[in-house]
């Protein structure tokens, strides 16, 4: 019995010894994977070559016109540090006074490299075509990223000759006071007068810059007809006036005298299009035929349906 008891005690002692050994081994593995504290230079050259998801609005403040743009700019960052080297995407919200060329920019920086990358927040002042500020974020290997940020910048094209954490740039600082900024009223892109429709183009301020005029006439004559012309005239109701836009339909022979005549005319002047929007009652559409060269059908324009 006594010899048997000694054997059992030896087996119980052997188990904790093995566990301690395993714990020590595990501790050794964990210690080997820890990173030592280190500070390294962060430097990169960068630029963007494409713009996506861009949206711009304008408004008028007390000191000039403001242009507010939200856009995603894509390009490349080049650096000896893999965390700052690779495909670059900057999502930016910028506010620029187009009169003084001063403004500010907030954005998100992201670099995706082969095995590493970085991401952070950009805060920059805009002055005379340059963005100057800072980038604060994180890189791979649980690293903190803090660096100066500078580049040539336009809201339409993005960043050029950018320097992160290196290079030199003229200082830029702004104080921005949030307040009333009147947004330009955007007019309709189409206007339907019956028998006329306008497809308009406008600039950022909402001013008409050009467009296309669509003539659309539904006619019904008692017999065969030969159409010889279709045009827009300037003239109030009950008066005749000069042609201001010719549809140039040529000669059209219609044996049954019933149909729809449509013609799209591009290149109408901005002045004419704006005049039609402002005072449509001073214009009329006239259709002429071989039997009625002075005008067979006349339709005075009314207030348009705007879309």
Give a verbal description of the structure:
The chain is elongated and about 95 Å long. The protein has helices at 2-33, 270-278, and strands at 44-61, 64-78, 86-97, 102-112, 117-127, 130-139, 143-154, 158-164, 182-183, 190-192, 196-202, 208-220, 225-234, 243-246, 252-254, 258-266, 283-289, 297-300, 305-306. Residues 1-33 have low confidence and may be disordered. The chain has two domains: 44-164; 190-306, Immunoglobulin-like. The chain has an eight-stranded antiparallel beta barrel with strand order 1-2-3-4-5-6-7-8. A hairpin with a 3-residue loop joins strand 6 (130-139) and strand 7. The chain starts with a helix and ends with a strand. The chain is mostly beta strands and 307 residues long. It is built from two helices and 19 strands.
